[in-house]
Amino acid sequence: MRKLFKNKEKRKQFLIFSFTLLIGAVFILEIIAFPLMYKEPSSKRKTPEELAKKFSNQFIFDENLTEQEKDFLLQRGITILSYYYSNSTKNAFEPESIVNSINSQNPRGQLIMEKIKSNETRVELNSLRNTIVIKNLTYNNLLKGLCDTLYYPPPDCSSFGE
């Protein structure tokens, strides 16, 4: 080894070459490793048939709907009622009867409800027609909000001067 590096110029060239080779190897390994480290998100997309089956007979859900599910419903003219409730107010106001009543008038169903635990009690109504947030939950306020968001409002909406 001593003989190999007697000349300072050759030693300098060897060190520069070794350093260049090491840096090149790191870059090549980095190029190979990064695509291998990337992992596709594991959220599964449901087919329209699966979504249609899920919403064909059930209109009230005790879980948050996914963005894909909400988009699917909105594109079909269905209004989404998001009921945010705290533990103390869950039984004080129950919009389930209104949901069932409206869906009984339209066999296809035009209103889907999701129940979401929250710190405050409120209702959000989303449709392609409108988006409304109701914080003062009463039967009349909810019915008025539904009249403004549903594609086929119930006959009771005539009392609100629609």
Query: Uncertain runs with pLDDT below 50, 5 residues or more?
Result: none
Structural class: alpha/beta
- Average predicted local confidence, pLDDT: 83
Largest sheet: 5 strands, mixed
Q: Report the total helices.
A: 5
Principal-axis shape:
rod-shaped
The CATH topology name of the domain at 49-155 reads: Glutaredoxin
CATH class call of the domain at 49-155: Alpha Beta
The value of Rg in angstroms is: 31 Å
Labels describing this entry:
Glutaredoxin, rod-shaped, about 160 residues, 5 helices, alpha/beta
Report on this structure.
The protein starts with 7 loop residues before the first helix and ends in a 13-residue tail after the last helix. With 162 residues, the protein is α/β, with parallel strands linked by helices. The protein contains 5 helices and 5 strands, in the order H-H-E-H-E-H-E-E-E-H. The protein has a domain at 49-155: Glutaredoxin (3-Layer(aba) Sandwich). 43% of the residues lie in helices and 15% in strands. It has a 5-stranded mixed sheet with strand order 1-3-2-4-5.
Layout of helices and strands, plus pairs?
Blueprint: H1 8-37, H2 48-57, E1 60-61, H3 67-75, E2 79-85, H4 96-105, E3 111-117, E4 122-126, E5 131-134, H5 139-149
Parallel strand pairs: 1-3, 2-3
Antiparallel strand pairs: 2-4, 4-5
Give a nutshell description of this structure:
With 162 residues, the protein is α/β, with parallel strands linked by helices. It has helices spanning 8-37, 48-57, 67-75, 96-105, 139-149, and strands at residues 60-61, 79-85, 111-117, 122-126, 131-134.
